Amino acid sequence: MKLKELKSIYRYNLEEKKFTIDVQLEDYRDAYSEWDFSPFTNRDLDDDLIEYILECSYEIPLRYFLVFDFHILNQAQDDAREERTIQGMQNFFKHETRKLDNYRMRVIRDIVSFFFVGCVLLFIGFYLSAFLGHSILFSIMSEGFFIGGWVLLREMFSAWFFEMKKATIKKKHFLRLQVSELKFSYRI
Questions:
Q1: Which residues of 40-59 are buried (b: 16+ CB within 10 A; e: fewer)?
Q2: Which end of the chain is more exposed for a tag (fewer CB within 10 A), N or C?
Q3: pLDDT tens digit string along 65-91?
Q4: Radius of gyration over alpha carbons of the chain, in Å?
Q5: Phi and psi of 34, rounded to 5°?
Q6: Which of 140, 35, 25 is nearest to 85 (CA)?
Q7: In what order do the strands lie in the sheet with 11-13?
Q8: Domain residue ranges of the chain, discontinuous segments joined by +
């Protein structure tokens, strides 16, 4: 999306190069999952809110700073709740970043495993076809090992180029969300 289009959708501060994303909530609690009853500083955010925030972040290039302006409709200003909400959102984004780091490490382990097991299967297939004769049984087995080896190598490249890329991009957006400015406006 072009910058001009983004400026027509979101408020843009030219001097600070910040996009402001407006979010309307009835209450502070609306930012959190209704199924999570832990303290506000450790609560999961509402799934719809997460989806909206991430979609906005994906739309706006990473080089721009984000400001989230939460419009609380039926509440008077409460500095303590505001601070807990900001802390809770930042904790959530940090938690998601840690989860993505763990996921990326699992993908790296899978890549290494796919590579080594694929190479072993290809070696076994080559050994069977080259040294154990040309009987139909060894031909079928060697073809099976070749197919298995190539499938695992394909999975390795798929995880490397696609899974890692998705996780890396998502992590960049969560890192940006961690440092984004959160403000509150009130309409009673």
A1: beebebbeebbeebeebbee
A2: C
A3: 999 998 888 778 888 888 888 888 898
A4: 25
A5: -75, -10
A6: 25
A7: 11-13, 18-25, 65-72, 181-186
A8: 3-98+180-186, 100-169
